[in-house]
Amino acid sequence: MTFVADTSLRDRLPDADRERWPALVEEWGVVEAAVADEVILPMARDNAEMMVLSRDKFIDHRREHPWIEDHPERFLAWRMNGDSIAFVPSGVKPEPRPLVSREKEAKLVHAAGLATAVLRTRWSCGDPYCTAAMTREGELLLWPVADAEGRVRCPFCEGPLAAIGPRRQTKQLVLCDMAGAELLRFPIEAGVDVVIGRGRAIYGVGVDSLPAPPERHGRISRQHLLLRLRPDGSVMAVDLGSANGTRIHRAGAPAGDGVRLEPHTAVTLGGHDLLSLARSVSVYVSGQRFPVGDGRTWSGRSEPPRTEIESEGTT
Ligand SMILES: [Zn+2]
Protein backbone atom coordinates (compact mmCIF):
# COMPACT_ATOMS: atom_id res chain seq x y z
CA MET A 1 0.00 0.00 0.00
CA THR A 2 1.22 3.52 -0.81
CA PHE A 3 0.28 6.43 1.44
CA VAL A 4 0.05 9.81 -0.23
CA ALA A 5 -0.66 12.73 2.08
CA ASP A 6 -1.73 16.25 1.22
CA THR A 7 0.51 18.57 3.25
CA SER A 8 -2.62 20.18 4.69
CA LEU A 9 -3.12 16.93 6.64
CA ARG A 10 -0.22 17.84 8.91
CA ASP A 11 -1.93 21.07 9.95
CA ARG A 12 -5.12 19.24 10.83
CA LEU A 13 -3.47 16.78 13.20
CA PRO A 14 -3.76 17.27 16.97
CA ASP A 15 -0.58 18.77 18.45
CA ALA A 16 0.71 15.48 19.89
CA ASP A 17 0.31 13.69 16.56
CA ARG A 18 1.85 16.54 14.64
CA GLU A 19 5.05 16.04 16.60
CA ARG A 20 5.04 12.35 15.72
CA TRP A 21 4.22 13.02 12.07
CA PRO A 22 7.81 13.17 10.72
CA ALA A 23 8.50 9.77 12.32
CA LEU A 24 5.32 8.30 10.82
CA VAL A 25 6.21 9.67 7.39
CA GLU A 26 9.54 7.89 7.70
CA GLU A 27 8.15 4.65 9.08
CA TRP A 28 5.28 4.24 6.60
CA GLY A 29 7.07 5.71 3.61
CA VAL A 30 4.38 8.37 3.22
CA VAL A 31 4.62 10.45 0.04
CA GLU A 32 3.86 14.06 0.97
CA ALA A 33 2.60 16.41 -1.73
CA ALA A 34 1.23 19.94 -1.70
CA VAL A 35 -1.76 18.68 -3.69
CA ALA A 36 -2.14 14.93 -3.33
CA ASP A 37 -4.37 14.53 -6.40
CA GLU A 38 -1.49 15.41 -8.66
CA VAL A 39 0.54 12.51 -7.29
CA ILE A 40 -2.21 9.94 -6.83
CA LEU A 41 -3.85 10.20 -10.24
CA PRO A 42 -0.74 9.77 -12.43
CA MET A 43 0.32 6.81 -10.23
CA ALA A 44 -3.08 5.17 -10.61
CA ARG A 45 -3.25 5.93 -14.33
CA ASP A 46 0.07 4.15 -14.88
CA ASN A 47 -0.76 1.14 -12.71
CA ALA A 48 -4.07 -0.54 -13.45
CA GLU A 49 -3.80 -2.64 -10.26
CA MET A 50 -3.89 0.40 -8.04
CA MET A 51 -7.05 1.41 -6.16
CA VAL A 52 -7.65 5.00 -5.06
CA LEU A 53 -9.04 5.43 -1.55
CA SER A 54 -10.58 8.87 -1.38
CA ARG A 55 -13.91 10.56 -0.89
CA ASP A 56 -12.96 12.96 -3.70
CA LYS A 57 -14.62 12.27 -7.06
CA PHE A 58 -11.83 14.20 -8.85
CA ILE A 59 -14.32 16.03 -11.06
CA ASP A 60 -11.87 18.81 -11.86
CA HIS A 61 -9.37 16.19 -13.13
CA ARG A 62 -11.66 14.41 -15.56
CA ARG A 63 -10.34 16.22 -18.62
CA GLU A 64 -6.71 15.31 -17.93
CA HIS A 65 -7.64 11.82 -16.71
CA PRO A 66 -10.44 10.52 -18.92
CA TRP A 67 -9.70 6.99 -17.64
CA ILE A 68 -11.37 7.87 -14.31
CA GLU A 69 -14.84 7.61 -15.83
CA ASP A 70 -13.96 4.29 -17.45
CA HIS A 71 -12.91 2.74 -14.13
CA PRO A 72 -15.29 3.78 -11.34
CA GLU A 73 -14.54 0.43 -9.63
CA ARG A 74 -11.04 1.65 -8.80
CA PHE A 75 -12.31 4.50 -6.60
CA LEU A 76 -13.31 3.60 -3.07
CA ALA A 77 -14.41 5.67 -0.11
CA TRP A 78 -14.61 4.38 3.47
CA ARG A 79 -17.31 4.09 6.07
CA MET A 80 -16.87 3.38 9.79
CA ASN A 81 -18.90 0.44 11.15
CA GLY A 82 -18.28 0.59 14.87
CA ASP A 83 -14.60 -0.28 15.14
CA SER A 84 -14.23 -1.60 11.61
CA ILE A 85 -13.85 0.19 8.32
CA ALA A 86 -15.82 -0.74 5.22
CA PHE A 87 -14.68 0.29 1.76
CA VAL A 88 -17.49 1.30 -0.56
CA PRO A 89 -17.60 2.66 -4.13
CA SER A 90 -16.97 6.38 -3.93
CA GLY A 91 -19.61 7.10 -6.57
CA VAL A 92 -17.46 8.12 -9.55
CA LYS A 93 -19.72 8.48 -12.58
CA PRO A 94 -19.48 10.33 -15.90
CA GLU A 95 -20.05 14.06 -15.41
CA PRO A 96 -21.21 16.61 -18.01
CA ARG A 97 -18.48 18.81 -19.46
CA PRO A 98 -19.79 22.12 -18.06
CA LEU A 99 -19.68 20.71 -14.53
CA VAL A 100 -16.12 19.44 -15.03
CA SER A 101 -15.20 22.82 -16.39
CA ARG A 102 -16.79 24.70 -13.49
CA GLU A 103 -15.05 22.60 -10.86
CA LYS A 104 -11.72 23.04 -12.60
CA GLU A 105 -12.18 26.76 -12.88
CA ALA A 106 -13.02 27.23 -9.24
CA LYS A 107 -9.69 25.59 -8.40
CA LEU A 108 -7.72 27.54 -10.99
CA VAL A 109 -9.07 30.87 -9.84
CA HIS A 110 -8.26 29.94 -6.27
CA ALA A 111 -4.74 28.81 -7.24
CA ALA A 112 -4.07 32.01 -9.20
CA GLY A 113 -4.95 34.04 -6.11
CA LEU A 114 -7.58 35.99 -8.02
CA ALA A 115 -10.46 37.22 -5.92
CA THR A 116 -13.96 37.51 -7.32
CA ALA A 117 -13.54 41.28 -7.12
CA VAL A 118 -10.61 41.00 -9.55
CA LEU A 119 -12.67 38.96 -11.98
CA ARG A 120 -15.48 41.50 -11.79
CA THR A 121 -13.21 44.37 -12.83
CA ARG A 122 -12.05 45.45 -16.28
CA TRP A 123 -8.29 46.05 -16.32
CA SER A 124 -5.93 48.03 -18.49
CA CYS A 125 -2.14 47.64 -18.72
CA GLY A 126 -0.23 50.82 -17.91
CA ASP A 127 2.69 50.10 -20.27
CA PRO A 128 1.91 51.80 -23.61
CA TYR A 129 4.26 49.42 -25.47
CA CYS A 130 2.67 46.27 -24.08
CA THR A 131 0.56 44.15 -26.45
CA ALA A 132 -2.21 44.20 -23.86
CA ALA A 133 -2.39 48.00 -24.06
CA MET A 134 -2.87 47.97 -27.83
CA THR A 135 -6.36 46.53 -27.72
CA ARG A 136 -9.21 48.60 -28.98
CA GLU A 137 -9.87 50.40 -25.74
CA GLY A 138 -6.73 49.48 -23.85
CA GLU A 139 -8.67 46.80 -22.04
CA LEU A 140 -6.91 43.60 -21.11
CA LEU A 141 -8.73 40.83 -22.96
CA LEU A 142 -7.24 37.97 -20.92
CA TRP A 143 -7.54 37.35 -17.19
CA PRO A 144 -4.96 39.18 -15.11
CA VAL A 145 -2.42 37.16 -13.15
CA ALA A 146 -1.52 37.54 -9.48
CA ASP A 147 2.08 37.97 -8.33
CA ALA A 148 3.55 36.40 -5.18
CA GLU A 149 2.11 39.20 -3.04
CA GLY A 150 -1.33 38.75 -4.57
CA ARG A 151 -1.13 41.96 -6.62
CA VAL A 152 -2.87 42.00 -9.96
CA ARG A 153 -0.46 41.97 -12.93
CA CYS A 154 -0.54 42.04 -16.71
CA PRO A 155 -0.14 38.50 -18.13
CA PHE A 156 1.95 39.87 -21.04
CA CYS A 157 4.45 42.23 -19.40
CA GLU A 158 3.83 41.50 -15.70
CA GLY A 159 3.41 45.24 -15.18
CA PRO A 160 0.78 46.81 -12.91
CA LEU A 161 -2.80 47.10 -14.11
CA ALA A 162 -5.29 49.91 -13.66
CA ALA A 163 -8.95 49.22 -12.91
CA ILE A 164 -11.11 50.83 -15.58
CA GLY A 165 -14.54 49.87 -14.34
CA PRO A 166 -16.79 46.95 -13.56
CA ARG A 167 -17.28 44.17 -16.06
CA ARG A 168 -20.49 43.86 -17.90
CA GLN A 169 -22.00 40.47 -18.50
CA THR A 170 -19.14 38.03 -18.93
CA LYS A 171 -18.70 34.40 -19.90
CA GLN A 172 -15.55 32.39 -20.20
CA LEU A 173 -14.20 30.52 -23.19
CA VAL A 174 -11.80 27.61 -23.16
CA LEU A 175 -9.16 27.06 -25.83
CA CYS A 176 -7.81 23.51 -26.20
CA ASP A 177 -5.44 21.67 -28.47
CA MET A 178 -6.86 18.87 -30.61
CA ALA A 179 -6.10 16.31 -27.90
CA GLY A 180 -8.39 18.26 -25.56
CA ALA A 181 -5.60 19.67 -23.35
CA GLU A 182 -6.43 23.18 -22.17
CA LEU A 183 -4.26 25.98 -23.53
CA LEU A 184 -6.06 29.02 -22.18
CA ARG A 185 -9.23 30.28 -20.51
CA PHE A 186 -10.26 33.81 -21.34
CA PRO A 187 -13.22 36.08 -20.65
CA ILE A 188 -15.66 37.38 -23.18
CA GLU A 189 -17.62 40.43 -22.15
CA ALA A 190 -20.75 41.82 -23.73
CA GLY A 191 -19.77 44.56 -26.17
CA VAL A 192 -16.08 43.59 -26.44
CA ASP A 193 -15.49 41.25 -29.38
CA VAL A 194 -12.60 38.81 -29.22
CA VAL A 195 -10.70 37.58 -32.28
CA ILE A 196 -8.72 34.35 -32.23
CA GLY A 197 -5.86 34.36 -34.67
CA ARG A 198 -2.13 34.25 -35.13
CA GLY A 199 0.35 37.04 -34.55
CA ARG A 200 0.00 40.02 -32.26
CA ALA A 201 -3.05 39.51 -30.12
CA ILE A 202 -4.39 43.01 -30.49
CA TYR A 203 -8.07 42.15 -30.45
CA GLY A 204 -7.95 38.88 -28.62
CA VAL A 205 -5.93 35.72 -28.53
CA GLY A 206 -2.75 35.11 -30.55
CA VAL A 207 -2.57 31.34 -30.65
CA ASP A 208 1.13 31.25 -31.57
CA SER A 209 2.10 33.48 -28.63
CA LEU A 210 0.69 31.11 -26.00
CA PRO A 211 3.23 29.61 -23.58
CA ALA A 212 2.75 26.26 -25.34
CA PRO A 213 1.55 26.91 -28.90
CA PRO A 214 -0.46 23.99 -30.29
CA GLU A 215 0.71 21.86 -33.18
CA ARG A 216 -0.13 23.16 -36.65
CA HIS A 217 -0.80 26.67 -35.31
CA GLY A 218 0.65 27.97 -38.57
CA ARG A 219 -2.57 26.85 -40.24
CA ILE A 220 -4.57 29.37 -38.21
CA SER A 221 -5.22 32.63 -40.05
CA ARG A 222 -4.16 35.97 -38.59
CA GLN A 223 -7.81 36.93 -38.13
CA HIS A 224 -9.48 33.55 -37.91
CA LEU A 225 -12.56 33.63 -35.72
CA LEU A 226 -14.55 36.39 -34.06
CA LEU A 227 -16.49 35.71 -30.87
CA ARG A 228 -19.11 37.99 -29.38
CA LEU A 229 -21.22 37.78 -26.25
CA ARG A 230 -24.66 39.04 -27.15
CA PRO A 231 -26.79 40.99 -24.65
CA ASP A 232 -29.07 37.93 -24.29
CA GLY A 233 -26.08 35.92 -23.01
CA SER A 234 -25.58 33.77 -26.11
CA VAL A 235 -22.17 33.49 -27.73
CA MET A 236 -21.91 34.21 -31.44
CA ALA A 237 -19.04 32.97 -33.62
CA VAL A 238 -18.02 34.14 -37.09
CA ASP A 239 -15.28 32.66 -39.27
CA LEU A 240 -13.48 35.72 -40.69
CA GLY A 241 -12.73 34.11 -44.06
CA SER A 242 -9.93 31.96 -42.66
CA ALA A 243 -7.79 29.95 -45.10
CA ASN A 244 -8.26 26.60 -43.36
CA GLY A 245 -11.73 27.06 -41.99
CA THR A 246 -13.62 26.60 -38.74
CA ARG A 247 -15.79 23.54 -38.07
CA ILE A 248 -18.61 23.30 -35.57
CA HIS A 249 -19.34 20.11 -33.67
CA ARG A 250 -22.88 20.42 -32.33
CA ALA A 251 -23.77 18.73 -29.05
CA GLY A 252 -25.75 15.58 -29.76
CA ALA A 253 -24.70 15.40 -33.41
CA PRO A 254 -23.04 12.14 -34.47
CA ALA A 255 -19.30 12.15 -33.72
CA GLY A 256 -17.29 13.06 -36.78
CA ASP A 257 -15.78 15.93 -38.57
CA GLY A 258 -18.44 18.53 -37.78
CA VAL A 259 -19.76 21.08 -40.24
CA ARG A 260 -17.65 23.82 -41.79
CA LEU A 261 -18.84 27.35 -41.00
CA GLU A 262 -19.75 29.61 -43.88
CA PRO A 263 -17.25 32.49 -43.84
CA HIS A 264 -18.56 35.82 -42.51
CA THR A 265 -21.77 34.22 -41.28
CA ALA A 266 -22.77 34.27 -37.62
CA VAL A 267 -23.69 31.11 -35.73
CA THR A 268 -24.77 30.76 -32.12
CA LEU A 269 -22.50 28.56 -30.03
CA GLY A 270 -24.50 26.36 -27.67
CA GLY A 271 -23.21 25.40 -24.23
CA HIS A 272 -22.02 21.99 -25.37
CA ASP A 273 -20.89 22.84 -28.89
CA LEU A 274 -17.25 22.84 -29.94
CA LEU A 275 -15.54 24.84 -32.66
CA SER A 276 -12.33 23.60 -34.24
CA LEU A 277 -10.06 26.06 -36.00
CA ALA A 278 -7.91 24.77 -38.87
CA ARG A 279 -7.72 21.40 -37.07
CA SER A 280 -5.26 23.06 -34.68
CA VAL A 281 -7.25 24.36 -31.70
CA SER A 282 -10.78 24.03 -30.42
CA VAL A 283 -12.86 26.47 -28.41
CA TYR A 284 -16.00 26.07 -26.32
CA VAL A 285 -18.01 28.05 -23.77
CA SER A 286 -17.08 27.15 -20.21
CA GLY A 287 -19.76 26.18 -17.71
CA GLN A 288 -18.62 28.92 -15.32
CA ARG A 289 -21.10 31.61 -14.41
CA PHE A 290 -19.63 34.93 -13.40
CA PRO A 291 -21.33 37.01 -10.75
CA VAL A 292 -20.80 40.25 -12.64
CA GLY A 293 -23.15 43.14 -13.08
CA ASP A 294 -24.29 44.77 -16.27
CA GLY A 295 -21.75 47.60 -15.91
CA ARG A 296 -24.39 50.29 -15.90
CA THR A 297 -22.95 51.81 -12.75
CA TRP A 298 -19.85 52.64 -14.77
CA SER A 299 -20.22 55.76 -16.88
CA GLY A 300 -16.67 56.37 -18.11
CA ARG A 301 -16.93 54.13 -21.14
CA SER A 302 -18.23 54.76 -24.60
CA GLU A 303 -19.87 51.95 -26.54
CA PRO A 304 -17.26 49.96 -28.46
CA PRO A 305 -17.36 49.91 -32.25
CA ARG A 306 -19.13 46.84 -33.55
CA THR A 307 -18.14 44.84 -36.57
CA GLU A 308 -20.69 44.57 -39.34
CA ILE A 309 -21.78 41.01 -38.72
CA GLU A 310 -25.00 40.17 -36.99
CA SER A 311 -27.16 38.18 -39.36
CA GLU A 312 -27.62 34.64 -38.15
CA GLY A 313 -26.45 31.76 -40.35
CA THR A 314 -28.26 28.48 -40.71
CA THR A 315 -25.47 26.08 -39.73
ZN1 LIG B 1 1.20 44.68 -20.11
UniProtKB/TrEMBL annotation:
Region annotated Disordered, chain positions: 293-315
Pfam families: FHA
Keywords associated with the record: Phosphoprotein
Span of domain FHA: 194-253
Coiled coil: none
Top-level taxon in the UniProt lineage: Bacteria
Name by which UniProt lists this protein: FHA domain-containing protein
Organism: Actinoplanes hulinensis
